[in-house]
Amino acid sequence: MSPRSQTELTVRAVIGEILPDLPAADVTLDKNLRDLGADSVDRVEIISLLTHRLGSREPISSFADIPDLAALIDHLSRGSQ
Q1: Other residues' Cβ atoms within 10 Å of the Cβ of residue 9
Q2: CA 42 to CA 47: how far, in whole Å?
Q3: What angle do CA 56, 33, 46 make, to 5 degrees?
Protein backbone atom coordinates (compact mmCIF):
# COMPACT_ATOMS: atom_id res chain seq x y z
CA MET A 1 0.00 0.00 0.00
CA SER A 2 1.46 3.33 -0.99
CA PRO A 3 1.55 6.28 1.42
CA ARG A 4 -1.30 8.77 1.02
CA SER A 5 0.41 11.94 2.19
CA GLN A 6 3.72 13.61 2.88
CA THR A 7 3.00 13.24 6.60
CA GLU A 8 2.58 9.49 6.20
CA LEU A 9 5.84 9.29 4.24
CA THR A 10 7.60 11.17 7.05
CA VAL A 11 6.08 8.93 9.74
CA ARG A 12 7.19 5.81 7.88
CA ALA A 13 10.70 7.22 7.32
CA VAL A 14 11.17 8.18 10.97
CA ILE A 15 9.91 4.81 12.21
CA GLY A 16 12.38 3.16 9.84
CA GLU A 17 15.23 5.26 11.24
CA ILE A 18 14.42 4.58 14.89
CA LEU A 19 13.41 0.93 14.39
CA PRO A 20 15.76 -0.15 11.57
CA ASP A 21 15.14 -3.89 12.04
CA LEU A 22 11.38 -3.51 11.54
CA PRO A 23 10.30 -4.64 8.06
CA ALA A 24 8.50 -1.82 6.23
CA ALA A 25 5.62 -4.21 5.46
CA ASP A 26 4.93 -4.49 9.21
CA VAL A 27 4.25 -0.75 9.49
CA THR A 28 0.48 -0.69 9.04
CA LEU A 29 -1.78 2.19 9.97
CA ASP A 30 -3.90 0.11 12.36
CA LYS A 31 -0.93 -0.47 14.69
CA ASN A 32 0.49 1.81 17.34
CA LEU A 33 4.17 2.37 18.05
CA ARG A 34 4.15 -0.12 20.92
CA ASP A 35 2.69 -2.79 18.58
CA LEU A 36 5.66 -2.17 16.29
CA GLY A 37 8.12 -2.90 19.10
CA ALA A 38 8.94 0.67 20.11
CA ASP A 39 9.77 0.99 23.80
CA SER A 40 9.13 4.22 25.70
CA VAL A 41 12.48 5.75 24.69
CA ASP A 42 11.90 4.83 21.03
CA ARG A 43 8.42 6.37 21.14
CA VAL A 44 9.74 9.65 22.55
CA GLU A 45 12.49 9.70 19.90
CA ILE A 46 9.98 9.03 17.11
CA ILE A 47 7.56 11.74 18.26
CA SER A 48 10.38 14.25 18.85
CA LEU A 49 11.85 13.65 15.41
CA LEU A 50 8.43 13.82 13.76
CA THR A 51 7.50 17.11 15.39
CA HIS A 52 10.91 18.53 14.42
CA ARG A 53 10.71 17.41 10.79
CA LEU A 54 7.12 18.51 10.37
CA GLY A 55 7.57 21.82 12.15
CA SER A 56 5.00 21.02 14.83
CA ARG A 57 5.02 22.73 18.21
CA GLU A 58 2.79 20.09 19.81
CA PRO A 59 4.05 18.92 23.21
CA ILE A 60 4.98 15.25 23.41
CA SER A 61 2.24 14.76 26.01
CA SER A 62 -0.39 15.53 23.34
CA PHE A 63 0.52 12.24 21.63
CA ALA A 64 -0.04 9.99 24.67
CA ASP A 65 -3.55 8.77 23.84
CA ILE A 66 -3.20 8.34 20.09
CA PRO A 67 -4.43 4.80 19.35
CA ASP A 68 -2.70 3.96 16.06
CA LEU A 69 -0.57 5.27 13.22
CA ALA A 70 -3.60 6.49 11.25
CA ALA A 71 -4.59 8.71 14.17
CA LEU A 72 -0.96 9.81 14.61
CA ILE A 73 -0.78 10.87 10.97
CA ASP A 74 -4.08 12.73 11.29
CA HIS A 75 -2.91 14.46 14.49
CA LEU A 76 0.37 15.50 12.87
CA SER A 77 -1.38 16.66 9.70
CA ARG A 78 -3.74 18.91 11.65
CA GLY A 79 -0.84 20.30 13.68
CA SER A 80 1.28 21.18 10.66
CA GLN A 81 -1.41 23.12 8.78
Answers
A1: 13
A2: 9
A3: 40
